[in-house]
Records
---
Amino acid sequence: MSPQLQKYLREKRVQVDRTLDHVLPPEEQEPCVIHRSMRYSVLAGGKRLRPILVIAAYQVAGGSRDAILVPACGLELIHTYSLIHDDLPCMDDDDYRRGRPTNHKVFGEAMAVLAGDAMTALAFECLLTEDQEDCFPAGAQLRAARAVARAIGTVGLVGGQVMDISNDARDGRKETLEETCARKTGALIGTSLECGGLLAGADSSVLEALRRYGRGLGLGFQIIDDVLNVTGDPRQMGKAAHSDQARDMVTFASLLGVEGAREEAQRWIEDAKSALDFLGEVAWPLREIADYVLERES
Ligand code: GRG
């Protein structure tokens, strides 16, 4: 990763973490246990990729206000909610996430379900936060909230998770696996970019470029996630390795082999970057984030 991107990501993570701390209810607020549960998972760290993509797309599309931070955090809340529910015994039944015991291991299943539910509500509050200084174009927040609502429903996360837990990709078709990943992972990543563009008032050609970049980035990201499940270091990743194999899941790594999967990811990342060609130098953070997704080890 270039020193320039390292600095960019560090600065954005600090801003996102500070904003998340601010928008989450304090632990002392009744009922305390649910607020402890929410803060436990959200403030456990993580790469903050989705909110950073909102901010980067917003800036690439010409936005310059700090007001983007609150809606951007809405995307992180949805993402963390999906992780909490994904880890439940009725789903993937995982014990570790972001380097600590999973939410249900600490707070119990009921509280983990409720923390996720509360985080969706809070995410939409963030997306629809009162725009006191007309930072965003009229109607943009509504369009962004609608895009997020769509992305988490049956055409996106929920649909992808249904295909994932049903192991639909057992049919051995790469297209089925691509469809599962495009929904389960790609939808939220793509929508993060779309939200940034919408909130900056981007025109349709920029929005289309962000969508195409998002599709390639989302698939590339999930393929590397599959590879890391085989080759990664659990301490560095903060979650278990080899869980896909243990559950007999068909993944890009099992379907194409580790090297084949890396090559497939590279193709998607190249396609993602080429979508940005006409945007010129201003799109450098998105280009470098795409390269980072390919190199990442956690
Ligand atoms: C409707 C939000 C919602 C969820 C219900 C449980 C579920 C349906 C979907 C699960 C989706 C899921 C967990 C997909 C995996 C995506 C993925 C690769 C997550 C890892 O993301 P990272 O590496 O994690 O960005 P950090 O911890 O760094 O944020």
---
Amino acid sequence: MKNFVLGGMGLIALTACNAQQSAPQLPNIIYVFPDQLRNAAMEYWSQDEFRPYVNFQGDPTHTPRLNEFARQSVVLSSCFSNNPVSSPHRGSLFTGMYSNKSGVPNNCQSFRPTCSLPDSATCVSDVLYEAGYDCAYIGKLHLFCPTPNDPQHPGQYVESRVPAWDAYTEPHQRHHFDFWYSYGTFDVHKNPHYWDSEGNRHDPHEYSPKHEADKAIEYMRNEGGKLRDSSKPFFMMISMNPPHSPYQSTKDCMEEDYNLYKDTPLDSLLVRPNVDFSMDKTKSAPYYFANVTGVDREFGRILDALKELGLDKNTIVIFTSDHGETMCSQGVKDPKNSPYAESVNVPFMIRYPDHLKPRVDNLMLSTPDIYPTLLGLVGLKHMIPGHLHGRDLSDIFFNPETTTVERPESALYFQNSDGRKGEDGLFYDFYPNARGLKTDRYTIAFYLDKKTGKLRESLFFDDVEDPYQQRNIPLDEKPEVVKELCQKLGQELKRIDDRWYQDKLLPELITY
Ligand code: CA
């Protein structure tokens, strides 16, 4: 799988900019990332122009707007979510650091008081603000330890469940996202709630992606100049919760979307040969895919508004996800968190008219790379903080043949669990449960026994010979390959000063 230019799609001719855009200005950025959307669920992978670039069969979804958008974008086939869970992903996305140093090694919950985005972090929004951007955040955040800071009920959590997941984000925690319309985490797709910039709660009683698209359009329109400074470029992140669970019934998705899938037998919806059809969860497939289509439609509405406002030419639009969804593949209950392709491989499309030539690229983009790459794309390389784990790969987006930056040959995989328990029963540390590496050919991951620190389990797949990862190769079957992968893994763990490097874990395997 190499990089190809899609046939018949030249650059869009430069047309007259509107008055607002006539002065040279940094491009706007719209970053849309629904939750738990696997790469295989993009319908375009089943279409002739795209099918040759992947070695899996695409899911039988309906994503007409994303199909059209893909033809205008650089589409990555191998974008990798390194720590494929909500909060660790977002921590890396915001800080440009892997989850060992981002401050967010696990999912944020009330029993993990120190697992929370630090106020002191220099986030991508802080840098863009400094460069003159207005920043907006809409939708799911899940990046702070929920604390009893409900603005309507001081001293209480914003939800009654314990451990608490949902959180109100105080102004000092917002990292220069001055337009705020967000919540921590709350999984009721048709009855969401949000807190706005002033801390007022909103319960719109409608499908959350639709409501979030409406808010995004309102922000772009900026009637009366109330929501942003129109003389500045804007950076808007929109995190839609679907197609994250729940996906049990039409209570969890729009009926019009469910109708597209309801008559298809389950074994025609779940087409991957590694699906365990004995799992009851297979019944969720039509509702999961319905939410993929719902997200597609609402993303399309954002694109329509952008065009109508004449802002599309000078706006970078990215569509991706925080991690994937196994949906009964591999017989695992956990939809994410594993190194399986369904969990780690996410969509990534980026459109920047007149600057990026539409194509499919097998660039192995890791989560911490996104922040510096975004700064590179908008011409702010000089503002990329020196301490980041992530690398600026923008030159590759501009020119796939560039020699100014090396193409990543691998991506790190992380899984953390709870570490030290305090006397109060809360967890103040994380345990670095598993580490692994993905290359263009192999996936390898090692799991520790928490008591002994020794190897508990390994997963090792030849992703070229075995694209659905159905055969876990014994490590002694390919010792030379394992040695090479472990050398690279050791180098990377050293580069990011990971706990595995500090403690020299699994020294019989990993060369540090
Ligand atoms: Ca998530």
